[in-house]
């Protein structure tokens, strides 16, 4: 389901509208463990450094901290491109006239700049982490000028979910109920279809939010998404609401 090579794998990146970044593990394919393994293997395969070189070299823990910092800076520099590009692709897949997810609206927390209602949404990206042999346009390179391919990293966002909390009026039996801070899935798109990546991304979001999927409200889901939820999460009989959200059995229990 996830890439399993040492330097070629998938990772989850969570970003809020304050541009705070959190890296989330996918099973054992997480960035920190992979870097630690790389540092361990490279140190065991290399010859013992001379006293002069060891005095100016970083310890593995410091190397790890530096690489994490560089990775986060690289992600931050790509956020606008990732959000706008995947937002447009999502809109096209849903036959929408304009994207419902774009960088400007995400940062400002509303669909319109003059809206008094602001939302603190988050976006989870599914990112392909890949080491490359040549110097790409967006890379991380260590300061030691090493030619090791492990020091050059390329990131490619291949999916996103935008989530947030909404105050919704939802139908419960014969009543219209006001649900405060309802966890809502607002946009969802994966560039690589039928590879298990969509299920992987949603599962990681649910785990990070510590919520069951039948407690989520889905904003204007397409028929393809409803079919996907039924196939991979056993969600049947969607309950369509007047506000175009959809909930499932167990939402109010």
Q: What would you say this structure looks like, in words?
A:
With 253 residues, the protein is of the alpha+beta class. It has a single domain (8-42, 58-247), classed as Aminopeptidase (3-Layer(aba) Sandwich). It is 34% helix and 26% strand. Strands 2-1-3-4-5-6-8-7 form an 8-stranded mixed beta sheet.
Spell out the key features of this protein.
Aminopeptidase, 34% helix, alpha+beta, eight-stranded mixed sheet, 253 residues, disordered N terminus, 6 helices
Task: Show the helix and strand layout.
Elements: E1 8-16, E2 21-24, H1 31-45, H2 51-56, H3 60-93, H4 103-108, E3 122-131, E4 153-172, E5 175-190, H5 197-209, E6 217-219, H6 223-233, E7 239-240, E8 245-247
Parallel strand pairs: 5-6
Antiparallel strand pairs: 1-2, 1-3, 3-4, 4-5, 6-8, 7-8
Helix pairs in contact: 1-3
**Mean pLDDT value:** 80
Can you count the beta strands? 8
Question: What is the chain-wise order of helices and strands?
Answer: EEHHHHEEEHEHEE
Known CATH architecture: 3-Layer(aba) Sandwich
Distance between the termini: 32 Å
| CATH T-level fold name | Aminopeptidase
| Physical arrangement of strands within the biggest beta sheet | 2-1-3-4-5-6-8-7
Q: How many structural domains?
A: 1
- Tell me, what is the CATH class? Alpha Beta
Helix percent reads: 25-40%
Shape type: globular
Structure summarized in a few sentences:
Helices cover 34% and strands 26% of the residues.
């Amino acid at each position: 389901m996830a890439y399993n090579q040492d330097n070629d794998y998938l990772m989850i990146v969570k970003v809020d509208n304050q541009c705070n970044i959190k890296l989330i593990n996918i099973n054992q394919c997480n960035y920190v463990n992979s870097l630690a393994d790389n540092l361990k293997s490279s140190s065991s395969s290399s010859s013992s450094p001379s006293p002069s070189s060891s005095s100016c070299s970083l310890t593995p823990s410091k190397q790890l901290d530096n690489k994490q910092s560089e990775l986060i800076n690289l992600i931050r520099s790509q956020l606008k491109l990732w959000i706008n590009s995947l937002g447009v692709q999502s809109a096209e897949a849903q036959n929408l006239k304009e994207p419902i997810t774009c960088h400007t609206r995400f940062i400002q927390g509303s669909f319109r700049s003059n809206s008094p209602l602001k939302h603190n949404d988050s976006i989870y990206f599914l990112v392909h982490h890949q080491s490359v042999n040549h110097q790409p346009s967006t890379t991380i390179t260590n300061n030691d000028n090493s030619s090791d391919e492990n020091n050059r990293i390329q990131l490619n966002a291949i999916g996103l979910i935008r989530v947030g909390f909404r105050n919704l009026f939802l139908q419960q039996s014969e009543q219209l109920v006001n649900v405060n801070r309802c966890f809502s899935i607002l946009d969802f798109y994966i560039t690589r279809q039928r590879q298990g990546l969509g299920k992987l991304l949603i599962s990681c979001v649910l785990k990070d939010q510590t919520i069951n999927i039948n407690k989520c409200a889905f904003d204007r889901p397409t028929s393809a998404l409803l079919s996907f939820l039924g196939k991979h999460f056993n969600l049947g009989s969607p309950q369509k609401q007047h506000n175009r959200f959809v909930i499932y059995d167990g939402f109010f229990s």
